[in-house]
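## retry 2 of 3
previous attempt timed out at serialization; input unchanged, resubmitting
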Amino acid sequence: MPAKTPEAVQRKVNNRKSKKDMGREAKIAELGGTSLTVKYGEPLDDELRKERTDYLFDLMYPKRHVFKSSGRTKQTEVERKEKARKLAADRYRKAKAERGEVVRGKNPTGSQQVYSPWYTLWAGAKQRAASKNLPFDIAQEDVRDLVIDLEFCPVLGVKLEWGNSKLQDDSPTLDKVVPELGYVKGNIAVISNKANRIKTDANLEEIGKVWCWLKKQS
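## retry succeeded, writing output
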């Protein structure tokens, strides 16, 4: 029958607690510790029960309070945030490099990061378009598509030299096919600097006249 009076309920609670205490002391004795005598129905008080539980855990896990140190000092919140910022910046730089865009900053050797050739052409064209108030709606990818696998000038057939620090005849340049249209999609080409100078702002008819004149002189 279920206990109904407070005294009966308390007896059931004491019986249950004392049974757990007896089991704990038996486990302590089994592990070689010093056990206490607990009578059925007479449990330990709460403070002593906590001490005996910690004592049992020490017997079961003797090294539970010993932690192996890595030898590194614990990072502060500021250091953790700075590390996270640098990781995010590295991921951003890597993603830009994979897309062929410029990666600013310095490389591992400490020297200035080298810009991709298409970025150099694109950035120069953007600056010229702004200074001369010309239309400009091309992206780096548009120039990259022209540069990839381009080895020779499509006009003169000379080999393009991408590593020149100064502008030379065989240096690649971004040309406006029709000058007045500006740097817009479908109106750009990568040709040698010499071909670009020959073309300059002349139209097809004017270039033809120059060719005819030179032909007569030879």
